């Protein structure tokens, strides 16, 4: 492997070190907080459940006081939302609904399915033990306990938890401002005419969508031609407006590849070239406090480097407690693969199952980084280590699924 390329680990380590946590926070509506990062720990101000309540529709009884197959008078009915302070009389049962408060004197609930009602009396077919079907006060949450730590990305379940405390707002880290620009004199704006010498620009929308999943604010800087003056003006403006600038194109060694030189002239290049395929010419730099991520122009390379190298940096900037790596699962390769060793390969591939639900992975027929249909046909990236030049059919390789849904499942 050429020493002038950084390994992915080394590049990530350098990039993460070069990225600072933004730190500013704001208070926002819980209903808009999905995907945002908590700026402070949230503590409980209410206990949950607030009182002992029934886990089932049935009859509240005192277990020691009750017998199977014996008629017991029904003292009354308690539904959820009712206050019930009247104690259970010895030898009686109170009809109770799920969520309703357990009356004083009762210590178990028998499911309605295990009872037989006759007029205003009930017999119990199967006696519950003391405590059965009762959700104890504070069993879930005690006042003062930590509900969500600082630096947690809020998921739907966190919003439910905070809402259960009566909260309508939450303190989150301010949105990272991410600028996105496509560089290339050959690029036409979709919706506008495309000259015979042009192609439609497609990286911005994909990279913006991919990064939007992190709850950032995207600022679209459009398309800029491959000339030093235009790039200088644009990157200067970006360094005053955004926290991270993500460009695509112009980072290789062609005559019109000015991106690195312009960043270097205005600020600095931290590193250039990573031993990955696709995505080798990825460049990282700074202009003032703005981080610059120069993605390669080939659409597949732009997509893969945005996923592997840009998202961890944004997560760090947002103050996410743990900068997580993508989940990998092991799958068995369905064909022989020959390739040139030297770069870690993230091949576009499809995971499926065999009849025993073992994961199988099949690479897309072509791995050229210009072939965009390889990323839409694929459902994962299959990782081949930089040292390996021949993968035999039947070998197990790690893969990064694009999502965690499966076409077939034994659920
Ligand atoms: N002599 C060498 N040539 C190249 C090398 C190399 O090491 N030596 N590396 C190749 C690799 S690997 C990649 S990846 C590309 C990356 O080059 P650039 O980042 O300079 O990208 P461009 O040349 O500007 O564009 C490459 C390709 O992608 C198309 N493109 C660019 N931007 C967009 C966009 N926004 N939407 C759609 N398509 C886009 C562009 O038209 C080119 O076809 O360099 C190799 N060359
Ligand atoms: O690195 Mo390029 O992205 O291999 O095509």
UniProtKB/TrEMBL annotation:
Listed GO CC annotations: cytosol
The residues forming a coiled coil are: none
Q: Where is the MoaB/Mog domain?
A: 179-316
Name any cofactors this protein relies on.
Mg(2+)
The record's GO molecular-function terms, alphabetically, read: metal ion binding; molybdopterin molybdotransferase activity
Q: Which InterPro entries match?
A: MoaB/Mog-like_dom_sf (IPR036425), MoaB/Mog_dom (IPR001453), MoCF_biosynth_CS (IPR008284), MoeA-like (IPR038987), MoeA_C_domain_IV (IPR005111), MoeA_C_domain_IV_sf (IPR036688), MoeA_linker/N (IPR005110), MoeA_linker/N_sf (IPR036135)
The protein's annotated catalytic reaction(s) are: adenylyl-molybdopterin + molybdate = Mo-molybdopterin + AMP + H(+)
Key word S-adenosyl-L-methionine present: no
Which pathway does this chain act in?
A: Cofactor biosynthesis; molybdopterin biosynthesis
GO BP annotations listed:
Mo-molybdopterin cofactor biosynthetic process
Alphabetically ordered keywords of this record = Magnesium, Metal-binding, Molybdenum, Molybdenum cofactor biosynthesis, Transferase
Enzymatic class: transferase
Lyase as a keyword of this entry, yes or no, is: no
Under Enzyme Commission nomenclature, its number is 2.10.1.1
The protein's role, per its UniProt record:
Catalyzes the insertion of molybdate into adenylated molybdopterin with the concomitant release of AMP.
Family affiliation: Belongs to the MoeA family.
Identification of the protein by name: Molybdopterin molybdenumtransferase
């Amino acid at each position: 492997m050429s020493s002038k390329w950084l390994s992915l680990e080394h590049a990530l380590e350098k990039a993460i070190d070069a990225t600072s946590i933004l730190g500013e926070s704001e208070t926002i509506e819980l209903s808009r907080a999905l995907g945002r990062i908590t700026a402070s720990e949230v503590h409980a101000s209410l206990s949950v459940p607030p009182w002992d309540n029934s886990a089932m529709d049935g009859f509240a009884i005192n277990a020691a006081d009750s017998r199977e197959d014996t008629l017991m008078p029904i003292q009354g009915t308690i539904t959820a939302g009712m206050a019930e302070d009247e104690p259970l009389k010895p030898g009686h049962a109170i009809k109770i609904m799920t969520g309703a408060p357990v009356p004083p004197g009762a210590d178990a609930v028998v499911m309605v399915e295990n009872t037989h009602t006759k007029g205003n009396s009930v017999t119990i077919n199967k006696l519950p033990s003391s405590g059965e079907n009762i959700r104890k006060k504070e069993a879930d949450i005690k006042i003062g306990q930590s509900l969500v730590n600082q630096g947690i990305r809020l998921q739907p379940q966190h919003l439910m938890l905070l809402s259960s405390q009566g909260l309508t707002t939450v303190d989150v880290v301010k949105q990272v401002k991410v600028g996105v620009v496509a560089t290339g004199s050959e690029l036409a704006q979709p919706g506008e005419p495309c000259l015979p010498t042009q192609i439609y620009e497609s990286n911005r929308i994909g990279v913006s969508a991919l990064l939007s999943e992190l709850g950032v604010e995207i600022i679209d800087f459009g398309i800029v031609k491959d000339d030093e003056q235009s790039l200088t003006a644009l990157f200067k403006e970006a360094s005053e407006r955004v926290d991270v600038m993500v460009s695509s194109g112009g980072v290789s060694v062609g005559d019109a590849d000015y991106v690195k030189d312009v960043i270097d002239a205005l600020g600095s290049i931290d590193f250039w070239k990573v031993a990955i395929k696709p995505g080798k010419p990825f460049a990282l730099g700074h202009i003032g406090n703005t981080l610059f991520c120069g993605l390669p122009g080939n659409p597949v390379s732009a997509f893969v480097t945005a996923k592997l190298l840009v998202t961890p940096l944004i997560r760090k900037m947002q103050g996410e407690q743990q900068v997580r790596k993508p989940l990998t699962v092991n799958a068995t390769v369905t064909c022989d693969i020959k390739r040139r060793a030297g770069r870690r390969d993230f091949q576009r591939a499809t995971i499926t199952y065999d009849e025993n639900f073992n994961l199988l992975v099949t690479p897309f027929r072509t791995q050229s980084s210009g072939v965009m249909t390889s990323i839409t046909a694929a459902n994962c990236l299959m990782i081949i280590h930089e040292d390996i030049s021949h993968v035999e059919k039947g070998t197990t390789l790690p893969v990064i699924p694009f999502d965690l849904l499966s076409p077939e499942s034994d659920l």
